[in-house]
Specification:
elongated; mainly beta; seven-stranded antiparallel sheet; about 475 residues; single chain; five-stranded antiparallel sheet
């Protein structure tokens, strides 16, 4: 993570997988400026912006303080205005316009889109001419319908008023998660419903009726973990998780075959096109509370094998334990990478560290900012000192997450808040034959109960992320 820009306690701080919360101005005096919209708490939504290289972000500005702790969505129009859609504390569907002028955004008043029944999971899109579209789940006594409305007044009015339901595309569902996109001369509504199918309906932008639904995918646990994007050539691509990560595309006439991208699950998958090439990014679970950032792309005739795109949030390249009493090292790199119980220990001490002077070295080819510990036995009574190598000496520091003494059975320890906070003098050094960026954890006072490990990684504690599209 290059730069930490906000704290959040919201359930859906970045919305659902298909939601958009990060935008960039592509033209004009402020071309390149990015704005992030973040649900920072149950009721608060804020924005912050930055210019390239995106290391200095503005103070967060409040957009709304009346939000429900539910997913929201946003779109940016061709003039740089951002339109936010969210459920308020009364579960009414509300929009607010962030008007762009002179390099900044000003927050407008709330406009109620729909208030007759509770609203959930909005998805928005905007036509090049500025017409706004919103789809959402309408709940009536626990049953959901997918409703779609539009606005030609820059979001000031919607249909005949706040009680206008708009077009109902599906009803009688246990849950519904929509995604609206523009495909050539059509508005397309994709939606997953009941956790069992993903379907699509569309109609001409100029008007008319919605075409009958086409099922894109079916199967259990097909929920909000899907996304869709349209290429410049007018191809609609869909990626979805159904206990495996799948891909399917529509060429304007027919749906192609289902393509398996990853035999494992793919959480919060997102798809975008670069020069006509589809890229899919997602979180890949590898163990409990452990997910890797991965991507795959189709640069040739088929999708590549999934690759890790953040090497600093991955498996450790070295886990080396040193016992002071015997002056011996033990390489536990392989043992630390799996969750076999109680196998991360020095054979001499029977622990990760125990006596004064014992050391755990954790290293990677890249600088890293967090460490995940899963311990079979939590330490008791001991204390430790963290340090890194500055090219000459081991320099002590206090991790951003505190001076963790291996005294709880599970912990993701934040070493530094973000990449910019990493020490500039952190250097590689050789430990037991491994030339890596090492973190040293040294026992400064003896443990009465010594910690024994099950898994140690540098995989970040990430549950969601958003790419700019």
């Amino acid at each position: 993570m290059l730069k930490k820009i906000a704290e959040t306690t919201a359930f859906f701080s970045l919305g659902l997988a298909a939601a958009r919360k990060l935008f960039r101005l592509d033209a004009g005096e402020y071309a390149g400026r990015m704005i992030a919209v973040i649900h920072t708490s149950g009721e608060d939504i804020k924005f912050t912006y930055a210019d390239t290289p995106y290391v200095s972000w503005s103070t967060a500005v409040s957009i709304a303080t009346d939000a429900a702790n539910r997913p929201s969505d946003a779109v940016m129009d061709s003039n740089g205005n951002v339109h936010l859609f969210y459920s308020d504390s009364s579960d009414h569907l509300v929009t607010r316009k962030l008007a762009f002028a002179n390099g900044n955004w000003s927050v407008g008043n709330a406009v109620v889109v729909y208030d007759a029944y509770p609203s959930r999971n909005p998805s928005a899109t905007v036509e090049p001419g500025g017409k706004l579209w919103i789809g959402w789940g309408r709940e009536v006594n626990g049953s959901f319908s997918l409703c779609v409305k539009s606005s030609t007044t820059d979001g000031a009015t919607w249909g005949s008023g706040s009680s206008d339901i708009g077009d109902v595309l599906v009803e009688g569902c246990d849950a519904v998660f929509p995604k609206l996109v523009l495909l050539n001369d059509r508005i397309v509504a994709l939606y997953s419903a009941d956790g069992t199918f993903l379907a699509v309906r569309s109609r001409l932008l100029s008007g008319g009726t919605w075409e009958s639904a086409t099922t894109v995918a079916s199967g259990m646990e097909l929920d909000n973990n899907y996304d869709a994007a349209v290429s410049a050539e007018g191809m609609l691509a869909v990626v979805y998780d159904i206990n495996q990560l799948k891909y399917r595309e529509f060429d304007g006439s027919n749906w192609g075959p289902v393509i398996n991208l990853d035999s494992s699950e793919g959480h919060v998958p997102q798809i975008f096109f670069v020069n006509g090439v589809p890229f899919v990014v997602y979180l890949s679970p590898v163990a409990e509370n452990q997910m890797l950032y991965k991507y795959t792309s189709r640069k040739s005739g088929s999708f590549s094998e999934p690759l890790i795109f953040d090497g600093s949030a991955s498996w450790l390249g070295g886990v080396c334990l040193y016992q002071a009493a015997s002056a011996t090292y033990a390489d536990l790199t392989d043992a630390a990478s799996n969750d076999t119980p109680a196998d991360v220990l020095h054979p001499g001490s029977g622990a990760i560290i125990k006596e004064t002077g014992d050391v755990a070295y954790l290293g990677m080819e890249e600088q890293f900012r967090s460490v995940y510990f899963k311990l079979f036995t939590a330490g008791l009574g001991g204390s430790v000192v963290y340090s890194y190598f500055d090219g000459v000496n081991w320099k002590a520091f206090t991790p951003a997450g505190g001076n963790f003494a291996l005294d709880t059975t599970e912990k993701t320890l934040l070493l530094w808040d973000d990449s910019l906070a990493m020490p500039s003098d952190w250097q590689k050094t050789n430990v037991n034959g491994g030339d890596l960026f090492w973190i040293r954890i040294e026992t400064s006072s003896q443990f009465s109960v010594a910690p024994v490990g099950t898994m140690v990684t540098a995989i970040a504690d990430c549950v969601a992320f958003t790419v700019r599209r």
